[in-house]
Design goal:
Length: 90
């Protein structure tokens, strides 16, 4: 199984979210896995609907989504950050 590494998460948001998860008996792994499963399930039911349609997006993220839908984005899928950095040459 691949390892998911997430960087640059707002530390205040992370602490608050981790406390809420703990109160509900969940770990970050449980919560992230449930979120990812929801994305996959929703996409399988309606591939034209974005799971994040109800989220408040920054202007930059909104533009990124438009660019991706228009096929103007080149992306790389990797199994871990080491492979990603190697492919990106950093």
């Amino acid at each position: 199984m691949a390892t998911l590494t997430i960087h640059n998460v707002d530390p205040v948001l992370k602490v608050e979210a981790m406390e809420i998860m703990r109160q509900h008996g969940m770990t970050a792994k449980d919560t992230i896995s449930a979120f990812l499963q929801k994305i996959v399930t929703d996409h399988r039911q309606d591939a034209d609907t974005c799971f994040c349609r109800d989220l408040e997006l920054s202007a930059e993220t909104g533009q990124d989504i438009k660019d991706a839908k228009a096929g103007r984005v080149k992306y790389t899928a990797c199994m871990d950050t080491d492979e990603l950095f190697k492919r990106l040459g950093i």
